[in-house]
Amino acid sequence: MNGNTINKSIYLKATPDVVWDYLTQPEKLAIWFHAPKTPIVAGEPLEMFGATSGDKMIWGDVVTARKPEYLEYTFTIAPMGGATSTVKWTLTAVDGGTHLALEHSGLPAGADAFGLTLALDKGWDNHLASMRDDAHVEG
Known about the structure:
Blueprint: E1 4-12, H1 16-24, H2 26-32, E2 45-49, E3 56-66, E4 70-75, E5 85-94, E6 97-107, H3 114-133
Antiparallel strand pairs: 1-6, 2-3, 3-4, 4-5, 5-6
Helix pairs in contact: 1-2
C-alpha cells in the first residue's frame, strides 16, 4: 500500500476478550479514544465522535471484525483531505494478558503530509497510553 505506515504495540494485563471490548464498545472506546454511537461491527460504517465537542472526528467502514483476534477499518479524518487509510488491530493472547498490535497504513506521503503522520504517530502513543493506564483494562 502506498503512503506512510505507523506500527505500535503494547502489552495489556487483560484477556483478548476484555481488550476487544476496548476496541469495539462505545463506553470503553470513550475512555481512551473517540467514541462511536454504536458498537463497531463488520460491514457497518465507522463514525467516532469527540468526547467533549461531540463533533465527528473519524469516519470510514469496518472491514473485518473477528472477535477477539482481529479488527480492521478504513480511517479518515478532516486533515487527510478525503484520503483514506487503514487501521488494523491484532490481539494475541500471551501468558498473563494480551499483546495488542496496531498497523495504520496508507497515510498520505510526501514532505507536505509528513506533519500529519507525526501528529497521528503521537496521537496513537497518547491513546494507547490511556488504554494501558485505565485500571479497568486489567480486569
